[in-house]
Amino acid sequence: MGLFTSFLWAISTNVYKSQSNEATPLAISSVKMWAAMIAMTALVLLPFRTTPFYMPLDSLLFLVSSVTVGLVIGDLLYLTSQERIGVSYAFPITSTYPIVTYLIAMVFVEEPILVSRLLGVIVAVLGITIISRSQAMVQDLTGTDHDPERPDTSDPPSTPRRVTDWFGIALALMAALCWATGSVLLQIGVHDVDPIDANFVRMVFGSGIFIPVFSAAVMRGMALPSKRATGIVMAAGLLGMTLGSLLYTFTVKMIGASIASLMGSMSPLFALPISTLVLKEAYSARSIVGALMTVTGVILVIIAV
Q1: 208 or 132: whose pLDDT is higher?
Q2: Is the distance from CB of 8 to CB of 239 less than 8 angstroms?
Q3: pLDDT tens, position by position, 181-206
């Protein structure tokens, strides 16, 4: 379930990026959250549910905090970072959040300190980072993307340009911290409630937060997303924000935030075979090494004793 969540997030993230010319990061975050809220409301109201809606106050507080920190602030920081430094940089940086999640979980939810599990998380995250960066390098060499750390071939060889957007990098790191904190808060909040009810609460409060933020941005001159971009983002939101977040909530409840966060960060592992087999893109030896490291790290995490 956690791996399928990662697959859905891999698809939706790239769809959001494809609409960045027609919608701002705030607009994308708002639209996908509102689409998820509508879908979750319909799911909660289904007449054939076997259990009634139940939400104690303490669980409500943790769930509201988790969606505010993780899905609202964290996603907005990531989308803004992605706009500034690109997916090939923002994604590997934020993919380190399972390490932070494990460290936070050890303190606040008494996650057992297992050296083999911590090592597995680190190895898997390094593998994910290698896959992401090697894919970016291959794309640059084939002319389909540009890596800002590589010299621009349109310039004279003696004047390479290297631009480091430190603010964009900082935003990506902050997004990773928000996602990690949100995952741990979710683990605490979903402990005594149905994951469907928990995710419904998260989507409702997340949607509510975006209403004044979005309205204020429009009043300050933010352009509204085009109808085409709105439809595409809503469709991707049904996959990533609705189904993806619901499955992630189930995953956190079943196996805990530290392992669930690792499963949810493995999108590059899915992107590698898709780009190679379906899109016929080139791959490098580094991609294969990264994939092997990722799988090895996940095995270490799962069998840790």
Answers
A1: 208
A2: yes
A3: 999 999 999 988 999 999 999 999 98
Farthest-apart Cα atoms in the chain, separation: 69
Closest CA to 136 of 296, 272, 250, 232: 272
Residue labelled with tokens 């683990």: 187
Distances, alpha carbon 295 to alpha carbons 89, 113, 260, 291, in Å = 22, 21, 15, 6
Percent of the chain whose pLDDT exceeds 90? 25
Q: Nearest-CA neighbor of 76 among 215, 221, 270, 209?
A: 209
> pTM to 2 decimals?
0.75
- Residue 218: CB atoms within 10 Å: 13
Task: Give the start-to-end residue ranges of the domains of the chain.
Answer: 2-45+55-150+163-303
Which amino acid, 14?
N
Length of the chain, in residues = 305
Q: Is 31 left (phi over 0), alpha (psi -120 to 50) or beta?
A: alpha
Residue 141's nearest CA partner among 289, 286, 292, 265 is 286
Encoded tokens for 163: 């631009």
Helix axes 87-94 and 75-85, enclosed angle (nearest 10): 140
